[in-house]
Amino acid sequence: MKETRIIMGMPIEIEIVDPHAREALEAAFAYLVAVDERFSTYKESSEISRINRGEIKESAMSPEMREVFALAEKTKKETNGYFDMRRPDGFLDPSGIVKGWAILNTAALIRRAGHENYFVNAGGDIAMGGVNAEGKDWSVGIRSPFSINEVVKVIYPRGKGVATSGSYIRGAHIYNPRTPKQELKEIVSITVIGPDVLEADRFATAAFAMGKAGIAFIENLPGFEGYAIDARGTATMTSDFSSYIV
Question: With contact defined as beta carbons under 8 Å apart, do 191 and 201 qualify?
Fold first, then answer.
C-alpha cells in the first residue's frame, strides 16, 4: 500500500508492504498533519508562530516543542553553531530538525501498528524498515541538483536513515549562521546516511551550511557517510559511502 500526500508544503510518500495497512497509513499521515499544525512557521495559529509572537511562554510550551528545542540546542553545540534555529530576524524556526524528527516518529508509529516493511520519504528525508514489495532491500536514488529527473547514484541504506539538504528545489532556505547574509554557493546538495533519519537530517542541514567543509565534517562523524555535489557538478563522498552502493 503506497500513497503520496502534500503535507508541510512538500510531497510525503509512505509505502507499507501490506495490503491491509490502510489504518496505519491514515494514522501516519494524520500524525504528520498534526506536526505541521504545531510547527509550521507559515501558519499563524501554529504553536511555533504563537511562541514567536510572545503569546506562549517557555513554561507553557508543549512537550513536543520542548523536545524539538532540546534537539536543536544539542545540534547547535555538536556542530559548532552551524545549526541554529534562530533566524537572522530573531524568530525561531525549528524546521531544519522537525522533518527528520517527524519522519522518525512516523516510522515508529508504523512499526507499533505491526508493520516491519515500510518506506517513508519527506522531501529527501527517508526512514525505512525491512524489505520492499519484491522482498529486496529498499533503494534510494540521489537526484542530480542540476536535473531533478536524473539520478546520479543509487544507494541501499539497509535500514539506516537518509537526508539530503540543498538549494536546488526550495532555493536558498539554509544559511551559514556566521554569515547569514551571504548566500551558500559552494555546494548545491549533500546527502547524509546516518543511524536514523533524525540524526541524518540534523547533521545534513549543518553540513550544508558549512559549504565545502561540510563533507569533511561528515567524514569525521562516527557512523555517518555523505555525498556532496558542488556548484561545478563535482561530487565528493566520504571514505565508506561506497559500501552503500551496489
Answer: no
